[in-house]
């Protein structure tokens, strides 16, 4: 049985693996649990517990999960209705008593609380709802395009298509929806959010859309439109770059753990640092280690911890479209790299197909510079692959599919550098749903 690996791209988007990248669903030994970047270090185990107690999550496989630091005396998730309920007056007062008089708001799937006194340690959920603690008067942006195209009076082009609230449509439903929309709008991408849909319209194709000319409801869901040369930046995030990274969430995904491995290039100005990913066994029995492809453009030699020190292998195959390179390890390194321990993050156990990553699931990456970082899958992004001019029209079924995530943790640029290539592991299943990517 084969599975397709995924990887993560900027803005926490997880790209589904290319059909050519088919690796046996068996993770071998990769996650080298050792400290990196220290002179004279070698492939020796990092000395700390792989999975410290207490347990970090309750039911992290979907909406309503509870983080270990969630101390709210109430639960906002309604499992029967599959939605979060509103705060009661007493619950709102409890929050104000504990965190001050800053603004408190919810979007239907996440909450943000303005406070000068954030809790320590910071919870990632509050009453079972994902939460961001922000500074006072810090603006939190949501992915709500302002283009004036939607009109609730324009008929729904596919009124028979429905899927449960706060879930993703199936591949077949997505194809049917885009097909129904095709006569009135030329889409280049579509985002399925927890409560609404955002359609990116092709830009520069000569099409002109008048205000209120497109349906405000598509597939029974509120639908918004984005029409610009630049793609949509999708995700809630802080507008204030000066906010303490430990108290607020970010969406720039470039992280992971492990050890750092370096290319043979020592060119100044080129960040060739990349984290090791996972060790895989191909169906023919060959074992390889995944790394970020962009770190090995000049040399195929892989060193640890610094260039010129221990050579641990050579790049033997690449998937540039996925930013994945496959490394054949030396016999010594091959014996010492293991998937069994992934620092504080969940141990990787299997590969996940992108379409099987559910809305509301939590995943983890763990880095030498960042510590444990958590990700919440909240959206699905289908987009038209780039193809040479004159190529036959790409069918909707062949569009690429990404999972859209928000990252919780210390995510400023210095911390992010060198984290590319690390696996993103689901908390509930141990499935690898992607790799960190610039």
From TrEMBL:
Q: Which domain of life is it from?
A: Eukaryota
Q: Where is this region: Disordered?
A: 32-57
Q: What is this protein called?
A: Uncharacterized protein
* Taxonomic classification: Eukaryota, Fungi, Dikarya, Ascomycota, Pezizomycotina
């Amino acid at each position: 049985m084969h599975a397709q690996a995924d990887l993560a791209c900027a803005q926490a988007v997880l790209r589904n693996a290319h059909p050519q990248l088919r690796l046996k669903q068996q993770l071998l030994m990769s996650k080298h649990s050792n400290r990196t970047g220290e002179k004279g270090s070698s492939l020796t185990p990092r000395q700390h517990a792989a999975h410290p107690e207490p347990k970090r999550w309750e039911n992290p496989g979907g909406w309503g999960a509870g983080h270990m630091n969630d101390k709210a005396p109430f639960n906002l998730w309604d499992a029967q209705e599959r939605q979060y309920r509103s705060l009661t007056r007493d619950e709102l007062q409890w929050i104000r008593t504990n965190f001050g008089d800053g603004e408190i708001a919810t979007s239907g799937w996440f909450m943000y609380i303005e406070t000068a006194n954030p809790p320590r340690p910071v919870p990632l959920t509050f009453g079972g709802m994902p939460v961001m603690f922000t500074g006072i008067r810090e603006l939190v942006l949501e992915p709500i395009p302002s283009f004036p195209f939607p009109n609730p009076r324009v008929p729904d082009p596919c009124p028979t298509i429905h899927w449960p609230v706060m879930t993703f449509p199936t591949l077949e439903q997505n194809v049917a929806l885009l097909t129904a929309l095709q006569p009135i709008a030329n889409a280049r991408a579509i985002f399925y959010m927890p409560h609404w849909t955002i359609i990116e319209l092709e830009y520069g194709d000569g099409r002109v859309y008048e205000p209120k000319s497109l349906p405000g409801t598509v597939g029974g869901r509120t639908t918004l439109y984005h029409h610009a040369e630049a793609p949509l930046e999708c995700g809630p995030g802080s507008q204030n770059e000066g906010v303490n990274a430990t108290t607020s969430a970010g969406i720039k995904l470039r992280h992971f753990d492990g050890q750092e491995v370096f290319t043979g290039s020592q060119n100044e100005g080129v960040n060739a640092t990349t984290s090791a990913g996972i060790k895989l066994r191909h169906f023919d029995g060959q074992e390889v280690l995944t790394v970020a492809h962009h770190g090995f453009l000049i040399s195929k030699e892989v060193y640890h911890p610094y260039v010129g020190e221990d050579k641990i292998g050579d790049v033997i195959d690449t998937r540039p479209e996925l930013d994945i390179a496959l490394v054949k390890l030396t016999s010594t390194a091959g014996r010492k790299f293991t998937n069994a321990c992934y620092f504080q993050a969940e141990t990787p156990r299997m590969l996940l197909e992108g379409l099987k990553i559910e809305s509301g699931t939590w995943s983890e990456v763990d880095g030498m510079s960042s510590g444990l970082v958590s990700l919440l899958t909240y959206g699905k992004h289908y987009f038209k692959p780039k193809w040479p001019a004159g190529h036959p029209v790409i069918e909707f079924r062949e569009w690429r599919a990404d999972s859209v995530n928000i990252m919780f943790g210390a995510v400023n640029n210095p911390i992010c550098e060198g984290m590319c290539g690390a696996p993103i592991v689901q908390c509930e299943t141990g499935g690898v749903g992607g790799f960190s990517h610039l």
